[in-house]
Amino acid sequence: MPAKNSVKQYVENGYYHLYNRGVDKRTIFVDQEDYNVFVSYLRQYLTPKNEAELRDRLSAPSITSKERDKILKILRLNNFYKKLMLLAYCLMPNHFHFFVKQNISGAIDAFIQSLCTRYTMYFNKKYKRIGPLYQGVYKAVLVETEPQYLHLSRYIHKQALAFQGDTLESQPSSYKMYSGQTNTEWIYPDEILAYFSKTSPKLSYPAFVEKANDFSVIQNALIDECI
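Below the sequence we write its predicted C-alpha cells.
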C-alpha cells in the first residue's frame, strides 16, 4: 500500500502542502551551512533567470574559466519562476514543509526532483555518505478549503517558531516575510496576508500565528472592522 499522501492529485492553479523527512528520520540539516545551501537552491529555482544577460557575460573577452563554468552551470539549471509559487516554508532539522501554488501541470514534480536531487548530492559529498537522503517519495496534500488554506501557513510557521536549536536563533522559514521583518522576491505572502489587518496588531497575521487559537474570532472581528 502506498504511503499516505504519496499518491498525488495534481491540478493547475492548485494549492499544495509538500513535505518530506530524512530517511530513518535522520537529520538532513546538520549545520547552518546546510540550511543556507538549501535556501540558496530555492532562490535559484524560483527567481527569474536572465539568460540573455548570462550569455552576454559568456561572450566577454575577459571572462575567466571559473566564471564561464559557473555561468554554464546556471544556464543548465531548471527554473520554475511563474510555474510554481512558494507561499510559505520552513526547514526543520530532519524535514521540510512547503506551501505552494502550482501554476503549470507537472511543475511540482520537476521542482521537488531538481531541488532534492541537487541537495542530496551536496549533502552526500559533504558528509562522505552514499544513498538516498529522504524517506521515500515526497508527500503532497491538495488544499481544498479556506480554513485548510489559512491554517496550513500557520502550522508551517508555528513549527519554525516553536523549535529553537542549540546554535540557531530560529529555524529558516518565511515567517519574517509575513511579520514584515524582511522582503524576499521568491516568496508570495500577499494572498494570505489579505485576510488580516495591517493596522490592528490584535487582528494581524502574527497574532493569528502566535496568539489566536481560533481563526473565526479574528475573522469575525475583521468583518466587523470593515462594516
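The CA atoms of residues 5 and 170 lie 28 Å apart.
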